[in-house]
UniProtKB/TrEMBL annotation:
GO cellular component: cytoplasm; nucleus
InterPro entries for the chain: SRR1-like (IPR012942), SRR1L (IPR040044)
Family affiliation: Belongs to the SRR1 family.
Name this protein carries in UniProt: SRR1-like domain-containing protein
Span of domain SRR1-like: 73-170
């Protein structure tokens, strides 16, 4: 991990699978203390991210790409899938912090939606506090974007990526 606490994830396919601690954290009942701890950790993670070399590089790359594409973000929407439970894992909090920074950097004024099948009501509360709309229903990635939409999907099953692409990829001649 970089000295600022943020790094690009490497190939770690399945590295969290079959871990007893993770399985236990997904099944235990959440408390208000978990929600409060998640809030405090998110504040800390935001400060770390916004001063990190990873964020600086990501902003530059994103700005250059959007400029090259002559992107108009006035109607841009944002959908995040597969972030995990913010109240259960620090990695999920890192992902929502990065998503929030993307939304702010791009000045996204359209819909900002997040879906995670393992959300608890406290995760939905936290999502709302971070200016995201937590969707209670899965669209299985079959959402057809009516306006330009940035999909943020850091840890999703291959089929979900496939569904998003099939639903939104238009061939041009």
């Amino acid at each position: 991990m970089d000295d600022d606490g943020w790094k690009v994830a490497g190939k770690g396919k399945g590295r969290w699978r079959n871990k007893p601690a993770l399985a236990q954290s997904l099944t235990r009942e959440l408390t208000l203390e978990d929600l409060d701890q998640a809030r405090k950790d998110i504040v800390l993670l935001e400060k770390q991210l916004l001063t990190s070399s990873l964020w600086s590089s990501a902003k530059s790359a994103l700005s250059e790409t959007l400029e090259r594409l002559q992107w108009d973000n006035t109607e841009l929407s944002f959908r995040a899938y597969g972030l995990g439970s913010f109240c259960r894992t620090r990695e999920s909090r890192r992902q929502i912090v990065f998503a929030k920074a993307l939304v702010a950097h791009l000045n996204i004024l359209g819909d900002v939606l997040v879906f995670e099948p393992h959300f608890h009501e406290y995760d939905s509360i936290l999502a709302k506090e971070l200016a995201f709309t937590a969707s209670p229903l899965s669209d299985d990635g079959l959402f057809l974007a009516a306006s330009p939409t940035l999909f943020f999907m850091p840890h999703c099953p291959r089929q979900l990526y496939n569904n998003v692409l099939q639903s939104n990829w238009k061939a041009t001649h």
